[in-house]
From TrEMBL:
Its main location: membrane. The keyword Transmembrane helix applies. Keywords: Cell membrane, Membrane, Transmembrane, Transmembrane helix. Belongs to the chromate ion transporter (CHR) (TC 2.A.51) family. It is a multi-pass membrane protein. This is Chromate transporter. It comes from Bosea robiniae. It is found in: Cell membrane. Pfam families: Chromate_transp.
């Protein structure tokens, strides 16, 4: 299938302005690391604009590239659904409106930082973001082939980063390169 072509059973592609509005809503209504979960729900489950497999492949690429994963993912989805203009519109939608809101909220929290309620609100938002990230991680883990090598790479990466505190860059480059090489060799 061509790069920007979709299977027949999926919905019609949105225009660049529609992508801007979709990503503006996602960026303004989502918190923390859960944005990829919102994107999965929006583009795969709700709008059926891409398959779960395409989404997770894009998420893998977005996480492997430098920069903010969510921004990378917005650009990837925008490009996949609308070419260059879709990528630009998606990037603007996920970044610009949320940046304005962050500045406003940051100013408000700075003036309210002496109150306990502001700390409680931030803890609640962090808990919600962790839950969304966990849900996204479980969705991605479901798709990992149930073979020894992929599961071993997943476990080794977790141990190296979370327990041994190895540098993320070198861990991902090492285990990622090994995983790609073995997967390429096998088929």
């Amino acid at each position: 299938m061509a790069q920007n072509q979709m299977p027949d059973n999926l919905a019609e592609r949105p225009s660049a302005p529609q992508l801007f509005l979709i990503f503006t809503r996602i960026g303004l209504t989502s918190f923390g690391g859960g944005l990829s979960g919102w994107m999965l729900r929006e583009f795969v489950q709700r709008r059926r604009l891409m398959s779960e497999e395409d989404f997770l492949n894009g998420l893998s690429v977005a996480q492997a590239l430098p920069g903010v994963n969510v921004t990378n993912m917005a650009i990837w989805i925008g490009y996949k659904l609308g070419g260059r203009n879709g990528a630009i519109a998606s990037w603007l939608g996920i970044v610009v409106p949320a940046a304005f809101v962050i500045v406003l909220i940051g100013s408000a929290f700075a003036s309210l930082s002496g109150y306990e309620l502001s700390h409680v609100a931030l803890s609640g938002a962090a808990s919600g973001a962790i839950g969304l990230s966990l849900a996204m991680g479980l969705t991605a883990a479901r798709r990992v082939p149930r073979r020894v090598f992929p599961l071993a790479i997943m476990a080794a990466t977790f141990v190296a980063v979370a327990i041994l505190k190895w540098p993320l860059l070198w861990t991902v480059l090492g285990f990622g390169s090994l995983s790609v090489a073995v997967t390429y060799r096998d088929g």
